[in-house]
Amino acid sequence: EELIGPPATARLFALPGEFLSRCAARSRSTGGSLGPAEEAGSAAATAAAVGTAMGAEVFVRRYTPCTRPWNPFHVDSAAVTVNVALCPDSSFQGGRLLAGVDGSMRIVERDEGEATVHASTLLHGVSALVAGVRYSLIMFFGHPEEEDSTSFGEAAREAEVVALKTMMAEEKWLTRCSEKLGSSRFTALQQNYQRLMSQENIGIVLEKVVSVFGAPHLRPSHIVARARQGNDSACWSIFA
After folding, report:
1. H or E element: which one contains 221?
2. How many helices and strands in the chain, by DSSP H and E?
């Protein structure tokens, strides 16, 4: 509030409530029912309405080519996320906000001060930053309806390894990923897979990846489920 003033602060904290209201209105207009993302976060919406920081986690992310060059595809541990660009996309190279929308990956171009609001279910990430410095203000409101575990256990580790091997043996799916990722990324994916297969404790490596990034959607079993539903975000998740 000291940096941007009370009016701008109140506007930011009002965004989650507006987002949930629009989701509810759209659901009613199409005759559908509210999903978990729209039903979750009622406390966050209430906090937004009164302009307080209760129930909100606020922090700044800094990206550079050497320290934090990208952010793998993930979903957030919040009911609603407000992501504010603190510098324009034109001030750096790479570092684009990517989002999986309607079965395809979209680039979200932003100028300084523009905010992106989305539910925790949105698969998103940041592409590799090539040059410059990228800053973004992240605001997490509420908690998702379900928290998925990032710890496996011995049986789960074995199951995840089987899921990964099954997925990487499906030629039809690999062909689709080759088209979606492009030849260079797909080649890197295959090389990384071969390196992983040379490890002694593959299950533990998979668990560490999911745990370090706090990303249960990167569990191979979850990726397989999305792939079989025809969701191309699975290709980007396995690449991540």
Report:
1. helix 220-228
2. 9, 10
* Cα atoms in the 13 Å half-sphere on the side-chain side of 91: 13
Find the range with the poorest average confidence among 38-42, 53-57, 61-65, 196-200. Answer: 38-42
Q: Is 48 left (phi over 0), alpha (psi -120 to 50) or beta?
A: alpha
Residue 136 CA, distance from chain mean position = 15
Contact present, 41 and 20 (Cβ < 8 Å): yes
Token pair 């397989």: residue:
224
């759209």: which residue's tokens?
26
- Report residue 124 as tokens: 């998103």
Which are the contacts of 40, defined by CB distance < 8 A and separation ≥ 6? 79, 119, 120, 142, 143, 144, 145
pTM of the complete model: 0.57
Distance from C-alpha of 122 to C-alpha of 75, rounded to nearest angstrom: 6
Round the average pLDDT of the chain to a whole number and report it. Answer: 82
Whole-angstrom distance between the N-terminal and C-terminal Cα of the chain? 36
Q: Which tokens in the block code for residue 26? A: 């759209």
Distance CA 85, CA 211 (A): 27
